[in-house]
Amino acid sequence: MKKITIGGVPEHFNLPWHMAIENNKFKDKHIDLQWKEFPGGTGAMCSALRDGSIDTAVILTEGIIKDIIAGNPSKIVKTYVDSPLLWGIHVAENSKFNSVQELKNAKIAISRPGSGSQLMAKVNAVKQGFNVDELKYVLVKNLDGGVQALSDGAADYFMWEHFMTKPYVDNGTFRRLDSLETPWPCFVIAVRNNILKEEPEAIKTMIKVINKQLKHFENPLENDKLIAHFSDRYQLKVEDVKTWLSLTKWNRKKTVSKKLINSIQNKLTDYDVIKENVPAKVLIKKMF
Questions:
Q1: Which of 14, 130, 194, 282 lies 20 to 30 Å from 163, alpha-carbon distance?
Q2: Which residues contact 67 (CB under 8 A, 6 or more apart)?
Q3: Dihedral Cα 105, 107, 110, 114, nearest 10 deg
Q4: What is the value of pTM for the model shown?
Q5: In this protein, which residues make up the domain named Ca3427-like PBP (predicted)?
């Protein structure tokens, strides 16, 4: 039995992993897959990959590309979700801000440097014509920290996944000024280089198992039981789950293409997330 420690956010996108683990799909293939939750998101997982406390991660595309370029000893082995991530742009309910354009000099709550919440703030800034170099950040660690920072005025706005934050919009904690899609597929699977070298067959098996699990999510809107499972587990309204599922497409391919990675890098450069492209072989590892 090969032990692999995998990191991921405590969000609805990762239900396929939890279902596969709980139903012993990995153990049946002699993989002891240990899930580690990261409420702090991509920045926290990048740190964990760097220090070796996890072997692999289900992680935001833009965050891991930026961090590999910055020296993270990992590679992307697979696209996990093809569809973009929808980020809500939130202010406190009683905030003076009423439009995204008004946020030019506002303080931004981010989970940590290099996080998706920071990188998408840059994407939004470029879209709005703000000076990216003048953005002001407040570190809040996670979603709970973002709620606190907006509530007590430590920060002015906070970008986080649209559907995970919707309960806070519904209960009046946040006002959502707008939403912004990532201009690329949102989640990939990254693995530390030493694990790729030492346990390539285990990683291949892990990919095969999750791809087989994702087959059950091909027509999720036809599965009332699955919709109810999402709703109960993540405290989301059924109608919100249905809307999210209608926008979400999981990827069942075994590899990630150089063409896709280069296209994403071009966009990341345009949005000032990375300064220049690197050869695709620096970022990806073909496993099959």
A1: 130
A2: 46, 49, 50, 74, 114
A3: 40
A4: 0.94
A5: 87-178
